[in-house]
Amino acid sequence: MYLLLATLLLTTSTHAFWRMPCNNLLVERADPIVSPGKVASHVHTIQGGSNFGLSANFGSLRQSKCTSCLVTQDMSNYWVPSLYFQFANGTFQDVPQVGGMLVYYLQRRANDSEQLFAFPDGFSMVAGTPSLRSYADTLEQRAISFVCLAYTAGKSYPQTSFIPPYDCPDGLRAQVFFPSCWDGINANSSDHKSHMAYPDGMDNGACPSTHPVRLVSLFYETTFSVTAFTSLRTQARNATQPFVFSTGDVTGYGFHGDFLNGWDKTVLQTAVSNCNASSGVIEECSAFKFNDPNAKCHHSPDVNEVVTGQLTALPGCNPVTSGPAPATSCTDPKPPSTFNGVGYTGGVPPTGANVTANQPSVVASASGFKYIGCGMDGVNGRSLPNQLISDQSGSMTIEKCMAAAASSSYRYAGVEYARECWAGNVTQPAQAPEGDCSFTCTGNSLEYCGAGNRLTLYNSTQWTQGVFTNPGPAGTTFVGCYTDNTAQRTFSTSATVSGAMTVAKCVAACSSASSANMYAGVEYAGQCYCDSTVRNAATVATPSSDPISAGCNMLCSGNSTEYCGGANRLNVYKLPSRASVVSAPASSTTTTAKASTSVSTSAKLSTITNASTSSKGKKKRSKSKKSKKSKKIARRKSDNTASYAQVNTPSVRCVKALVARTSQMYESNAT
Questions:
Q1: What does UniProt give as the signal peptide span (predicted)?
Q2: How confident is the model at residue 616, as a pLDDT?
Q3: 140: part of which helix (H) or strand (E)?
Q4: Are 25 and 68 in contact (CB under 8 A)?
């Protein structure tokens, strides 16, 4: 159990509290409480509402798009100074936090009858003093503490008021307890402290008469991953205690925390009054709604300054000092410029957002390709079927992939899993949240290159339309290249259209034929079929991500720039809702699909034949010929497309001759 918290629980009869985990929102030199509208004096690591910024306030935080904390109704910001490792050569390396911050809300009272309140709107406060370099036994300094975590080594170190001078194999936990007694009037004060006071026990007890209103108690735990630097201690300026806070503080006495309220006050008051469990499990409080624990919320930089990685000096004017005298303030001689930071979900800043020089970003364009988002992919069905590069040498970049795609005149290209380059002339892959494509390229850590089953996706601005799989007229959805056969049709009804076949004509014919039709399918360059469902265990032909390779590779008889299925292959489209049915040409007709029907003009030819003669013998011979043709359809040659186009444009003056010639042609083609 946490040492400080265990002490707290023993000092009061009311043990109610909850713990709220928060992920990091951003790291930068910003502090809208102490330095509103300006670059702050030192670097902070910030958690909470995405509308954090140099001038953030209660109103702007309440409009945040997301929060990096677990509770969705809390758009507050929580921050502490960042920690660095100092090398002997005077350079610094930032020390990452383990999982962000753990924020405790504790219902501490002087007695069970004392009323406890939520933070008022517009409220903010600071605990601790950044300039301190020595210890005095005041309530404020007692509120700052450290714990060296070493449970894997079987050790338990006592809590200290300073950074402990020994190795902490499981992390260094920095702790700050905020004052909980309010003057009842001011939401802030000039020093950001005097409107608040500590109770006489610091973390428990009675409030002073000057600050009679008891607010819920706030306590931060921030664990720094110092373990990664254990092997580097011999290279440190001070091997015994090599860490320094962003204020230049090597003692830890200047550690502090800031809180800018962004709570829905009604929700917080409900929780304070009614969530009285002593387990600390926040999910037990019914007043709260929770984010997905895997959700990501960030804010792009407000300050154009590199504050992570290896640095030649601490950002700002923060010389390293060890006391005992307080650190003196100095002015940053060359403050950095500022950005208009934006909040965003996912792991990638939105396109166009400013980033610092050492942060990855999306490459906007390369080799005539333009970024269009993060695309979905799958192992069993590739969105882009052609792999151009599988980089194993650590050299993949967006530029390299786009150059390869441009040389082969592809329409779409993308990089997946940091090192794989894929391309294709198929329909645009489905969109995924932009933040999903969070892997950086193996050849350039400042570029994003997709992720697992995610493509950082581009389309060519120079590509001209050749033959392609039509994604469907407005309102329809292309669902794939499906198998078909003459014995068991995928769709039960055939439809004829006016003139030569196109995808749009088939969709229109099926839409107008019956309100029950939910699907339209084009096959064999000129056939059109309709149905309310996919029948007879028809399946998507493989590879599912590439309809052309799957066999839907015949050009439409009425549009040579799009495909209309293939031999025993249907390009299938989900029809629009009945409220937006496309009107079909007036001459379109539909008939029940039979095993003998193999090309879309057969229905039309049958109609012509019936109009030309009433002889039953001729009808029987026509049916017999169709039956023979049906059995041989699988062996048709690719030149059927030309023959089909020829018979699909008859001369009205030669109907009888055309019928005879066509019957002979069908018999010949079937062999």
A1: 1-16
A2: 40
A3: helix 139-142
A4: yes
